[in-house]
Amino acid sequence: MTSDGLVGRSRSAPDEPTPPAAADAFLGDPAGNAAYEDAIDRARDCLVDSFATADGPYAGTDHETLRERIDELTVFPDEGDPLAAVLETVGEDVLADSVRVHDPGCVAHLHCPPAIPALAAELLLSGTNQSLDSFDQAPAASVLEEHVVDACCDLFDYPAGADGVFTGGGTESNFLGLLLARDWYCRTRFDRDVQTAGLPPEATDLRLCCSAAAHFTAEQAAHHLGLGEDAVVTVPTDDERRIDLEALDETLARLESEGRHPFALVGTAGTTDFGSIDPLEEMADRAAERDLWFHVDAAYGGACAISDRLRPKLAGIDRADSIGVDFHKLFYQPIGCGAFLLRDGDRYRFLERNATYLNPERDDAAGVPNLVSKSTRTTRRFDALKPFVTFNALGRTGVADCVEYVCDLADAVAADIRAEPALELCCEPALSAVVFRYRPDRSDAAARAAGADERPEPVSTAALDRVNRAIRDELLADGEVVLARTEIDGTAALKLTLLNPKTTRWDLREALQAVIDYGETIERDRGTIDSA
Ligand SMILES: *Cc1c(COP(=O)(O)O)cnc(C)c1O
Description:
By secondary structure, this protein is of the alpha/beta class. The protein folds into three domains: about 20-100, PLP-dependent transferase-like (Up-down Bundle), CATH 1.20.1650; about 160-350, Type I PLP-dependent aspartate aminotransferase-like (Major domain) (Aspartate Aminotransferase, domain 2, 3-Layer(aba) Sandwich), CATH 3.40.640.10; about 390-525, Aspartate Aminotransferase, domain 1, CATH 3.90.1150.10. The protein has 15 helices and eleven strands. The strands form two sheets. It has a seven-stranded mixed sheet with strand order 1-7-6-5-4-2-3, sandwiched between helices. Strand 2, helix 8 and strand 3 form a beta-alpha-beta unit. The mean pLDDT is about 95. Pyridoxal-5'-phosphate binds near residues 110, 174, 268 and 297. Keywords: Decarboxylase, Lyase, Pyridoxal phosphate.
């Protein structure tokens, strides 16, 4: 039996709210679907055109010029323009001055060219806009994320009962690891429930240890966790930029003798600058001896797990209490895409939270996916779809081939640097990052200036610092090569981070030649100025 009830009323009452014209900009009916196809086609053309017309990794525009031009753009115009016109503006004013991550000369940061299958997945996950904070906002997506997380746990040889969640990247993964470490430690050592009661009085003596080459987000997390950056005790590194185990033992013994409470060890599998991988097995031993939480920051090097050849570099990572791995670095996913993995999933109890509107306790009892309790976020993207699509499209071996290739390329370019007198290799590459310097005292220009037979005088570190900084800035300004600068013991060095599987050794030889040419020009110009 039906009643006229609500739906029987007239649709055309004069005071009825009617959908606005802008409702055409939404999917859901044939007109919206057609508008979507048109919009995506246009966006795609805009992107492909920007690649087709581009030359080199960056146009070289400086920030002042960009600000002047971009400040002219309206943000909230009263009336809209056709999408085609808006996209044209974006193409001209934004895309044209974007760094082109696909260019072989874009070799600065851990900033990858995203794989095409992942870009297709990105379209689907933003188009469907599933939100992983509750099952009813993301049914299949929640279950697929759980499934991908399980597969990642297997990839790192975690035992049954491991768990995890997708994150926005290494920053969030490191924070989650250290948050759980802190709360686990305070519960087991001080019988303190930090989630409800806050930090215990002993918190001022909590310490975490990592190498001096660890990522700054360890300090950032300590700050955000209410421990303060001083709670991070950095341990010196060895010649290969890995944590020095003797120094680690001394540090731990000293902290204990001082009455501190070291609660976590952070190992890095792939330091941001050198790609160096800490001795994870030995660190796991230390953590086990003292019952500390062992977190491994594998934001960069975690990708080795996909390759049979490179996986041994990560030996011991399965013993970590938690692992952070980024998919938006050496795993070729568009930003952001990372995962946090927890060896003993029961330890998620330190984060548990039930909101009646999202994940009431009775749902937990029924086994409904409950991802909001595993994350520090609420609304969260379905980023797990991207690696899922990529791995299925390229195969594990396809991705592994890319990772292996860029590591081989790093070895090849390191050999080229070693063979070039005007360049100095700062460290053997451990993954795909190569840190080096231009050495003015060894360049041809300097040699000629010093006379044919004499070796030029070694330059001061101040001069080394200056010229290497200038090289990087001028290369960026000319848009020829985008490489990174870093510092070793306070002195500038240059860095190539190789991620692009299309980049060749010849591309990199051109980049190195550009470094030498710019270095010599800078030296010569300075010589002219000095003698003028
Ligand atoms: C990039 C990086 C991070 C930070 O990760 P985001 O994804 O940028 O948040 C942390 N640790 C290491 C070793 C990294 O390389």
